[in-house]
Amino acid sequence: GWHEHVEPKVEQLTNKLRRLQQGKQALGEEVKEVQSLRDSLQEELDALQTEAYQLEAFHKEKEELCRILQFQCEEIEQDSTRQKQLNRRSKDLIELYRCQIQETKLRHRKQRMKFENQLQQLIEQHKNLHSLFSPDRLPSEIENVTNSKFQLLKAEQQKLSQLCHLEEKLDEARSRTETTDTHTG
């Protein structure tokens, strides 16, 4: 009776052991799968972190570049503003000089006309005073007056050509400021 009693028990235990071993084997494979999955996820995470670091570095670089470009833009704008102000000042000065030259020319013309009138009167007086002068002295007197007239006219011509030269320079300066103005604007 004892032998029969132990037999089924051994069989039960053997079956149970077989089932447990199969279960253990299945679990082992499952663990391997989970570990493999965990490893590949870890690799993916590492790759993503590396990419994140690179992107962050790239972003910082771009931000720095943006700051530099912003600074350069501001500097160029300030330079441009300064240039425009300088041009405006130059134009105002040129206009002022032009007006002064015109005034000087007018003054000069008035003086010349006044001088020519006086000279004409003097010449007339000299001619009229012919009777008071000895005939031999009269030609030299007239020659002196004529000479001084020519010298004064010559001096006036020089003054006028200086004024014209100055006016040309002003025109050049003005056209220069106008071209630089169009480039900066």
UniProtKB/TrEMBL annotation:
Keyword Transmembrane appears in the UniProt entry: no
UniProt entry keywords in alphabetical sequence: Coiled coil, Meiosis
The organism's place on the tree of life at top rank: Eukaryota
Any GO BP annotation: synaptonemal complex assembly
Sections of the chain in a coiled coil: 10-58, 105-132
InterPro entries per the UniProt record, alphabetical: SYCE1
GO terms under cellular component: synaptonemal complex
Family: Belongs to the SYCE family.
Name the UniProt record assigns to this protein: Synaptonemal complex central element protein 1
Organism expressing this protein natively: Esox lucius (Northern pike)
